Amino acid sequence: MYKYIVLLLLPIVVYAQLKIAVTYPYIGAVVKEIAQDNVDTYVLAKGNWDPHFVVPRPSLIAKVRRVDGLIINGGELEIGWLPPLTRRASNPKVKNGSKGYLDLSQYIAFLEKPKELDRADGDVHPAGNPHYHLDPNNILILANVIREYLTKLDPKNAEAYAKNFKNFERMWHDKIKTWADKMKNKQGMKVVQYHNNLAYFNKAYGLKTIGTIEPLPGIPPSSRHTIELISLIKSEKPAAILHDVYHSTKTAKFIASKTGIPVVIMPHDIEALDEIQDLISLFDYLTSAIK
Question: How far, in Å, CA of 1 to CA of 143, rounded?
Fold first, then answer.
């Protein structure tokens, strides 16, 4: 006589891990703070790259093809490289207007919005200066927007996202106070930049940009403009040339040799320099670099 064992099969619900692509490392870091281990995050650009120019490699296309969402800086910072990447990925989940598409720039008050557009003014962004994440106050705005976004895509983890945001908010407020105290004596300090990617940082801490090595946004320095800038520096006596990591420092060093002011490297994102590994170390570095 055969004995039969009857197994009661219960339904097993398996939730797939949410997969989100982000355009830049700082966005990935904010997502990590809010999501912790509930989201797989894919960062498309490296922190030491020029954020305006990213090659849409096959590996990046493959990443975008399989994600559930895409978070971008916006303000046309990605305009030169992201559209062809998303077009080739053919993922309906990350198309502009879809539930999974998030443009962070829509939640920020932009600086330097042009009154009119003219190509003679260089590579000007129509919405204004897109480097808004370098004001640490804006990071809190972005963190809350990302919390809301993740909650809509993944409501089962809404409570965790809310708790993580509160923890991050508390910690970040303390850090903002620390950085403000460090920069208090820099109020009104004059500086020169290569490209005006520090507009929001400078506004947050009261620094005044008197000129840029680029004669116009996106236009390489000419000999004439460099000579004029040297004259301006001798007259205005700024404290430093604040320089990004992705443009050559050749012209800046030449200007420094003629004026005696230092060239200070100012990273724009996580991993722009080896010692910048998270959001805190980014702003720790920026608020310590200017002497």
Answer: 66
